[in-house]
Amino acid sequence: MKYDVLILGCGPAGYYFAKNYAKCKKKVAIIEKARLGGVGFRTGCLPVKKYLDKIRDVNISKKLIKNEICEVKLAMKKLYTSVRDDLFEIEEMIQKNLRALKVDIYFGNGEFLSQNEFRINDIILKFDKCVLATGTSPRGFGDITIDEDIILSHIGAVNMEDLPEDICIIGANVEGIEFASLFSSLGVKVTVIDMDKEILKGNDEDLKELTVNYLRENNVDFILGNKVKNIELKDNRARISFGDRNIYASKALVTGIRRPNIPKGLKEIGVRIEADCIPVNDFFKTNVENIYAIGDINGILGMAHIGINQGIELSEYFINNTKPKKNYKALPRAIYTIYEIAGAGYQENELKNEEYKVEKIHFKDTFRGFSKGLHEGFLKILTDRNNKIIGLWISSENASDLVGDVGIWIDRGFKIDDIKSKLFIHPTLGEAILDAVLKF
């Protein structure tokens, strides 16, 4: 079988490359060794968000119960298992979409035979170009081995048969804090250990406040400034060693440590592989002429939306010969806790030695915030000395939905006056941007 392009990996990068490139009627195949959707859609990013969305619905119900508007019994364990079972629909949706685009799908492990041949399940596929979108996998550290039973990665965490009584999360990073929000909201006793003395290091304190307070109210214990030395099994529990102490937990979740997924035979055909990535040039090309790499595997930032962008950019290069922009200057990003942190551009902690202005608006002081009964959350805008917008950040529920095209505003040097003349639908939470702008 001969293909114009063979894609290895069906996570965000590989899927969006296939989705865009297949429209030009070329012959395309995609190979997946595990589950369609990869970490971004199936075992990490999106599944955690689906759980958290359900928890927000439950929190609304709790408020109604508190106000005696309704009576309902909340079954948190059933919530967890029902969402876990729903995740299989993601794979079905991806497969349906690819089939509709006439993309051939192969499952299993394979290997490169040459720079134009790949063997999968005793079938030899020939190709003109190959796109590596194999991503990364979680790994332990030191002598710690992830077994996905007691010592977990995100894969085991979203696929447990039942909720544990307690869990110890290694890492107060984005992944660790998102899972802390998830499990503590489901009634699991959570302990978070991190070698740093700061939760969500690198983010402004005011942006973190709602999230940290929510976690503490849910009885999350933080052990900061302590490096975990070892995790071992003891009487079917995890014993976590740090400093001169040991603590025990039903489960231990290791976060933030990953390794690249290198296809078999890749090194043998001459592709250069570094310790934590496959390096690429400005066109996502490896050192081998017809082999390209997109998404986490190339080591550029390691976020799902970066992988999606690279998939689209590379497909456009193949179709129209347009050079990929790789424009990450005003990268939008989000932390998906119950109270999300989302935005683009600079935060204040990055501007300590720079002249800047900042204005903040609380959603409770907006018309839509009033109609929704919001009591918490805010938006802030940062500008430079010339009134150019250099950062916009939000802390609130569903903050990620409000960021929109702010990254484009920053990239294009929009000023405060440009936003004053922009139309915002009334009443919406997006009007908070206009309200903040009018304070300058």
Automatic annotation (TrEMBL):
Assigned keywords, A-Z: FAD, Flavoprotein, NAD
Methyltransferase keyword on record: no
Signal sequence interval, chain numbering: none
Keyword Zinc listed: no
Protein name: Dihydrolipoamide dehydrogenase
Cofactor(s) needed by this chain: FAD
Pyridine nucleotide-disulphide oxidoreductase dimerisation domain: residues covered: 332-436
Ranges for domain FAD/NAD(P)-binding: 3-311
GO molecular function terms listed in the Swiss-Prot or TrEMBL record: dihydrolipoyl dehydrogenase (NADH) activity; flavin adenine dinucleotide binding
PANTHER family: DIHYDROLIPOYL DEHYDROGENASE, MITOCHONDRIAL, DISULFIDE OXIDOREDUCTASE
Pfam family, one: Pyr_redox_dim
UniProt family annotation: Belongs to the class-I pyridine nucleotide-disulfide oxidoreductase family.
GO BP term (any one): 2-oxoglutarate metabolic process
